[in-house]
Amino acid sequence: MKLLLDQGLPRSTVLELHKLKIDSIHVGDIGMFASTDADIINKALKGSQIVITLDSDFHTILAVNGNIKPSVIRIRIEGLKSKKLSKII
Question: Model pTM greater than 0.90?
Fold first, then answer.
């Protein structure tokens, strides 16, 4: 499982996920902090990653375009710290 964490999620979550042996990266760590949702979807698709986000727009973009990939997990609890977020993921 490879995860791509969207802006709005704590970057430090990646460190917690690595402790759990989960391959993950934050968009801010790869120069995509200001990227569009569509660009993030394309990056995840090319990298066979699952997008983790707070944003409901990702599902809308996939539905409007008739796409079923990449997988997107929307976290609906805002303000989570990295340890708790990594446990939820």
Answer: yes
